[in-house]
Design brief:
The chain is an alpha/beta fold. It has 13 helices and 10 strands. α7 links the parallel β5 and β6. The structure holds sulfopyruvate and magnesium ion.
Length: 325
């Protein structure tokens, strides 16, 4: 199996428009892969929202690392971690790169704002840009630290978010590319792709460009493709979809005092077992636990049948109070 670092680097240089989909835990990482995507965006916004905190570095970087490791374990496609500002200065970035490599996270994106960061769609008065040279130093430090030549550092430019112009965005992009960035992520919060297209029109370097069309989502992907964009990130849509579904289901069950009205609209428990690959554990138990000892088997000692897993993988679900789950 190709290394995840190499998989991600190939996506950046595939020569055609590629797409990353947001995930924020092991389950959603699996869903993204099953849907057919070739890569995952571990979004700072959705990771923090799923933890019940704000996208302002309220979750510690090690808490983020724990979740992203579970995501990586749960999927075989590469993850681009939204590492905000790198959680500190160049030295914190060096340590982050070492930890990401240890945990098989093949790529990180850092943005040129100051710690603690503020989400780009929130009050722009609270947004502060990092000094260009200081940020370029973080990129250099990351590239000097990585052990795997294919580990990727994506440098994110927030100039447009702060209302600065194309020149500022381009100057920063050139500085970050010279510092060794493997790609530039240029962010915009307009509802049209104008800033992105203007940037692409002037960007002549052989350094791939990544975009996040959350606000200009109505632009057809071919427009980005023609402009020379390498990767589009759908940054938060699984969290938003699941939030809508969970709000609706929780409210209906609360109001009706029953699951009857939602039962047809939610996945059966069997589907959750499938996503957890419970079948693999059932098979492993047969191989490694032929006979159970201890309290359970003593209580079942009158039976000659060896005790094996009771996961309802292929048959019906365990009846509970004479009703199936
Ligand atoms: C994220 O998904 O956390 C991002 C993209 O950084 S955005 O929310 O658009 O800033
Ligand atoms: Mg973010």
């Amino acid at each position: 199996m190709t290394q995840k670092t190499t998989q991600f680097k190939r996506l950046l240089h595939s020569g055609k428009l590629e797409f990353l989909m947001e995930a924020h835990n092991g389950l959603t990482a699996k869903l993204v892969e099953e849907a057919g995507f070739k890569g995952i965006w571990a979004s700072g916004l959705t990771l923090s929202a799923a933890m019940g905190v704000r996208d302002s570095n309220e979750a510690s970087w090690t808490q983020v690392l724990e979740v992203v490791e579970l995501m990586s374990d749960a999927s075989s496609i590469p993850i681009l971690l939204d590492a905000d500002t790198g959680y500190g200065n160049f030295n914190n970035v060096r340590r982050l790169v070492r930890k990401l490599e240890q945990r098989n996270i093949p790529a990180m994106c850092i943005e040129d704002k100051v710690f603690p960061k503020t989400n780009s769609f929130l009050n722009e008065k609270h947004q502060l840009l990092a000094d260009t040279e200081e940020f370029a130093g973080k990129i250099k430090a990351a590239k000097d630290t990585q052990q795997d030549g294919d580990f990727c550092v994506v440098a994110r430019i927030e100039a447009f978010i702060l209302g600065l112009g194309l020149n500022e965005a381009l100057e920063r992009a050139h500085a970050y590319s010279s510092a060794g960035a493997d790609a530039i992520l240029v962010h915009s919060k307009l509802s049209s792709p104008d800033q992105i297209l203007a940037f692409m029109n002037q960007w002549k370097e052989n350094c791939p460009v990544v975009i996040v069309p959350t606000t200009y989502y109505q632009t057809p992907a071919e427009v980005f493709d023609r402009a020379g964009v390498s990767i589009v990130i759908w940054a938060n849509h699984l969290l938003r979809a699941s939030t809508a579904a969970m709000q609706s289901v929780a409210s209906i069950i609360y109001q009706t005092g029953s699951v009857a009205a939602v039962h047809e609209h939610i996945v059966p428990v069997k589907e959750i077992f499938r996503l957890q690959n419970a079948a693999e554990l059932e098979a492993a138990e047969l191989r490694y636990l032929p006979v159970r000892t201890g309290i359970l088997s003593r209580s079942a000692s009158s039976s000659s049948k060896p005790e094996v897993s009771s996961y309802p993988i292929s048959g019906d679900l365990i009846p509970l109070n004479s009703r199936p789950l």
